[in-house]
From TrEMBL, chain A:
Source organism of this protein record: Adhaeretor mobilis
Record-given protein name: Putative FAD-linked oxidoreductase
Domain FAD-binding PCMH-type residue range list: 1-165
Gene Ontology MF annotations: FAD binding; oxidoreductase activity
Gene3D superfamilies: 3.30.465.10
Catalytic activity, EC: 1.-.-.-
Origin superkingdom: Bacteria
SUPFAM superfamilies: FAD-binding/transporter-associated domain-like
Automatic annotation (TrEMBL), chain B:
Boundaries of every FAD-binding PCMH-type domain copy: 89-267
Organism (species): Adhaeretor mobilis
EC annotation from Swiss-Prot or TrEMBL: 1.-.-.-
Source domain of life: Bacteria
Cofactor(s) required for function per UniProt: FAD
Database matches in InterPro entries: FAD-bd_oxidored_4_C, FAD-bd_PCMH, FAD-bd_PCMH-like_sf, FAD-bd_PCMH_sub2, FAD-linked_Oxase-like_C, FAD-linked_OxidoTrans_Type4, Oxid_FAD_bind_N, Vanillyl_alc_oxidase_C-sub2
Protein name (database record): Putative FAD-linked oxidoreductase
Protein's UniProt keywords contain Oxidoreductase: yes
MF terms (GO), sorted A to Z: FAD binding; oxidoreductase activity
Gene3D superfamilies attached to this UniProt entry: 3.30.465.10, 3.30.70.2740, Vanillyl-alcohol Oxidase, Chain A, domain 4 (1.10.45.10)
Renumbered residue ranges of the record's region Disordered: 513-534
Keywords: FAD, Flavoprotein, Oxidoreductase
Automatic annotation (TrEMBL), chain C:
Record keywords, A-Z: 4Fe-4S, Electron transport, Iron, Iron-sulfur, Metal-binding, Repeat, Transport
The EC number(s) this enzyme carries: 1.1.99.14
Pfam families the UniProt entry points to: CCG, Fer4_8
CC cofactor: [4Fe-4S] cluster
Uppermost EC category: oxidoreductase
Protein name: Glycolate oxidase iron-sulfur subunit
Species the sequence originates in: Adhaeretor mobilis
Domain of life, source organism: Bacteria
GO MF terms, alphabetically ordered: 4 iron, 4 sulfur cluster binding; glycolate dehydrogenase activity; metal ion binding
Residue ranges of every copy of the 4Fe-4S ferredoxin-type domain listed in the record: 14-45, 65-88
The reaction(s) this protein catalyses: (R)-lactate + A = pyruvate + AH2; glycolate + A = glyoxylate + AH2
InterPro entries according to UniProt: 4Fe4S_Fe-S-bd, 4Fe4S_Fe_S_CS, Cys_rich_dom, Glc_ox_4Fe-4S, Helical_ferredxn
Originating gene: lutA
Amino acid sequence: METIETTEQLTHFVRNQAQVRVRAGGTKPATSGNANVSLVNLSGVIEYESSEFTITVRAGTPLAEIENLLAEQRQYLPFDPPLARAGATIGGTVATGLSGSGRFRYGGVRDFLLGVRFVTGEGQLVQLGSKVVKNAAGFDFPKLMVGGLGRFGIMTELTLKVFPAPEATRTVVLENDNQSDALETMLQLAASQLDLTCLDLDDTNRIRARVAGSDSALLDRVARLQQFSNIANKVIEGEEELALWQAVGEFQWVPAGYRLVKVALAPEQIPPLISDLTPGALRICAGGHLGWIAWPQERPGEELDRVLAQHCCPGLAITGDWHSPLIGEHQGSAFARRLTLALDPESKFTNPQPVV
Amino acid sequence: MHEVSKTSIVSVCKLGSRTPRPSGLHTFEPPSHFWVDAVEIPAASASTPSDLSRLAPLVDQLRQRFPTDRLLTQPAQLAPYESDGLTAFRVHPGGVVLVQDASEVVTVVRLCHEHGVPFVARGSGTSLSGGSLPVAGGLVIALNRMNRVLDYQPRSQTIVVEPGVVNQQVSRHVAQDGLYYAPDPSSGPVCTIGGNVAFNSGGAHCLKYGMTANHVLGIKAVFPDGELVELGGRSHETAGADLAGMFVGSEGLFGIALEIVLRLLPLPERFHTVLAAYDSLEKAGDAVASVVASGLLPGAMEIMDKLAIEASEQAVHAGYPTGAAAALIVELEGPEEEVAAEIPRLDAIMQASGAYELRVAKSAADRMNIWKGRKGAFSAVGRLSPDYIVQDGVVPRSRLGEALAEVQRLSARYGLRVANVFHAGDGNLHPLILYDGRIEGQLHQAELLAGEILRMCIRLGGSITGEHGVGVEKLEFLPEMYGEAEMELMNRVRQTIDPQELANRGKLLLSASDVGKQSHAPHPLESAGVISRA
Amino acid sequence: MQHSIPSAELGPRGQAMADAVSSCVHCGFCLPACPTYQVLGEEMDSPRGRIFLMKDVLEDRLPLEQALPYVDRCLGCLGCEPACPSGVQYGDLITSFRAHSERKRSRTFFDRLMRQVVLQTLPYTARFRWAARLGKLASFTSPLLPHRLSNMLAMLPAQLPPSEQLPEVTPAIGPRRARVALLAGCAQQVLAPQINRAAIELLSRNGVEVVVPQAQGCCGALAAHTGADRLAMEAARKNLRAFPGDINAVVTTAAGCGSGMHEYPLWLKGTQEEAQAHALASMTKDVCVFLAELGPVGFAPLADPLRVAYHDACHLAHGQGVREQPRQLLQMIGNLELVEVPDREFCCGSAGTYNLEQPEVATELGERKAAAIVSTEAQAVATGNIGCMVQIENHLADAGRCLPVKHTIEWLADSCLDGHGSE
Ligand SMILES: Cc1cc2nc3c(=O)[nH]c(=O)nc-3n(C[C@H](O)[C@H](O)[C@H](O)COP(=O)(O)OP(=O)(O)OC[C@H]3O[C@@H](n4cnc5c(N)ncnc54)[C@H](O)[C@@H]3O)c2cc1C
Ligand code: SF4
Ligand code: SF4
């Protein structure tokens, strides 16, 4: 594997290779298997103007570095990118389109990426989108890069929108007796006016609801949340709360010997999907729109692929070995193919993988 | 929305709601037959005068499928379709088809493709950049009658609509469940979701919630060659490339959206709307900077200058501070307790900002009125001047003051009045350049001034459009914002999707054959005889 | 919007037309407010489209005949005016344009006949009464008649109330607080004489002396809105002479007549009477506005609770900007629960002679309005215009709901106390 240091090296590399497969932090091996180029050294913050609430960084910059820098100015990435501790980079996060529990309130990584600089399949360096928070000029290539797995271009630089960090947070853990109660409570909370930041449901029917905002209003809001569904609950704060969400963001719940898969869900798909998976395999995030599946190493990946396809769910394998990281049902292949034709006519980024 | 049915009349499968496939080994089969001929990117084929000769056989075909009252070809039927919200240009279309469902759109698009006739989709025709301007000799596909809600899932907070559904009708439809659709362009009571998707429309509340793209989850569309495609789905989350996101904002060049899945949000519990008056525009701008710096995240922050205040007040009587040099609207929203906690913080900032008058909306009706004044501002400026250009550019938020001062300087230099209404929190300027089209040369002056403003936005590191799109109006500025490689890439993408350039020809991207021969005035399409001045 | 309308060549109203076109910025804010656009869903049948068409005709770009079907389909409901942030005076444009085009257009024989029948009967109380009787006779043969005629007949009540002469002067009961002149109206006086009777009673109980000038005639709105500008000017002149000066207000009970009188300055633009027309127009008030300003003495509660839907007559709400006063007054009646009709700003489709000229659209709008009223579960309806009353009553009946539909003034008069506190 070649480690490149500059964009020039990267364009050169792309021009001279028949196949280009990228890795950076390596935290999502299912999406970066047989990589032949590493972007870890294409790292560093290019521009950060806190009063602008935007930040421009090189693709290989570790999330942790960005988050620390933002925190100094009391700002943050509201979409809560996972695997920061494990060493994930911003480029990998965008390319896989991964957002964490915090996506519930303000949206996912797609909603915070403003501009990208990337290398096309022909080794052209282009810069699209913009560095301002609002832009409607030209095609929205940044969106294409989100979750694109590098199939439409290799990102070198990204501009993101950031938000002011909340003054304070608390998490309320609500214990439910059974799964259907838990789902019902979650949906009610999702539609409520409580303005939660995170809303997760784990495999033990436990809901984790996070409240964030002004210090002085927080306790009242927590009290209201506790009253909302009148079920057994516990309030978590401070270090414990941080640790809890960190564990979630690092997928510490995934047992050894299991592979992690992300799935995009509509809440009504959850009950039938759960019944087709092994118990405890699915954890639910973002009010029922984002699922994480732990899939045993020994069971064939095709099986999960089939289950997800049956339920019309698009899935993305994160760790472990897979035939292709895109499993389940993915829409829009006709569009993707045409885009590939324009962006990567020789299919350097996709061969031999099928385009979906 | 006069006809609301909850079931799709389209037989093609709905987004993300497919009947489960029978189990069996799931393979990635190459899906489409037609792909084969599109592999070759044909040499540039641009607008040709022979479009007119192709129209007649197409119309003959259409006549067999559409009743006369839905296939418009008489001059008086076509005249009202000649312009959209940008009246400086008008083009006489070859025909207008009033479609009523998705399958009709597909039929028309396929026929257009077969006959090589360009087409333009039209929602409510409120585009301010000439997006729905027809192509001479081409077809207008009017989608406004396709205004049904196809599916609504309050528990999942999603709704599936046809493209002709009016923006505000979505919120109206879901209000009973305490939900709403966040993007709120000022034209919300009129413009359609299809138009919003094409332009990635924004609104006052984008500050917190983003633009249309951030609220579109899935799209079913027909490509300009008639192929159907589904993008995204019903989940608020995506897995795999965000293709629906890529479709949004493509200004109709990728074809016509037939069904759109939207994300809905719970209505905020409380709003706190403040209207502040300032004796200078700078003070209002500084106030915005202070609010942003404080870490508050208001739902909206809007500024209007003296001219805009005057016009809106005449139109709506919302109690705007007439005579003020600037008015700032700041709106906090959220749970009761949170807003209550934020109010004193906002108050302190506003007190310190030098506002000479502060008014807080006392009731929902009062708040509505303040917003009505703001949202009617563009049109209200029609009271001050017979003609004007609504400009739309973005600058980095920290350079707002600089940009406004420059706009004022330019206004003085050109001797044309400029009214300013803008999404201050986003750095999105809307200078309205007032001119009188009857005075020889004024339109040209106004366009030059508009151009200078756009170049300033580029210079300051911003964008030539925050929400109104490139359309016809900014065609020649896009290559100034992006480099050659970027333009070529966009053109290439367009070519793989629509090699004949049938969909919205003459918008966003110059025709392949026109690339390289742009000039600043007159408009490239004007010199080509494609469009004419009103 | 830029234009090249030769306003100077178009007579005294040329400027009004040019101004309306000029102030239109083509933003489309009027589209959702326009009933014909909502029903027909095409740009030609929208205010913005019609402005475009009229502009093109006036600029000589488009033959008049081509544009007429769409201009004719305009209800003249003025729903587009309050919706327009740019302040386009659409009413001035359409009325003037209709007058302008009437001189140029050719009509079929049947059209001309219909038009003459309408213009020569409706505005004249006696002729209308006579025609209506005949009409009812003819209705037995209505299946044989052209659709438009039978539609007209369907609107007539089964039995006409007896003819009624209004007293020339009705004194105030109790101390006199004001003196007003009442515009009696024409069709209304034949079809529903109880409305003016109620108005007079209500006013006098509130200490208002009411005079009914005998020399008055039709307000002229019907003629004006169908392009018969000479007839309209004649009507206006007649009323300018008929109404005395020593009154506090001219009171109207039909929305259409009230807004017609407010248009006198437009009709008489550029004539000697223009100033006088302004003066009369500024004195003219809908009876509810006058009463709300005066402050009513009081109302007795209804015997039983009743849900009443208030329907905004276009020529009150849009034409005269009167929306709140009738509601305020009705809400003063105990036990009367006022309910709002969804899409309340929408025309019911009655619109003067529209029912006769554009029956399909009129029927569609009538049905929608009836459905909207039914959705409120109202038990009765109040509105300020005779045309709306007939239209709504008919369409509610078609929808199987025979609800009482009464003029606001009837509701008020029925519960009115007098200056002495008695009913
Ligand atoms: C007074 C006023 C205020 C405005 N305020 C705002 C604002 O605050 N924010 C903002 O963003 N914009 C604003 N606009 C601009 C305009 O309203 C938006 O661009 C809107 O999205 C256009 O919608 P429409 O239905 O009128 O589309 P049209 O004007 O009919 O069409 C716009 C474009 O979309 C294409 N199109 C339409 N339907 C489809 C479809 N189904 N599939 C593919 N392409 C399609 C058309 O071909 C055309 O290129 C304003 C306009 C006016 C007149
Ligand atoms: S709202 Fe007014 S300015 Fe806008 S199109 Fe309609 S009439 Fe013209
Ligand atoms: S008057 Fe009524 S029908 Fe005529 S254009 Fe205006 S809103 Fe439409």
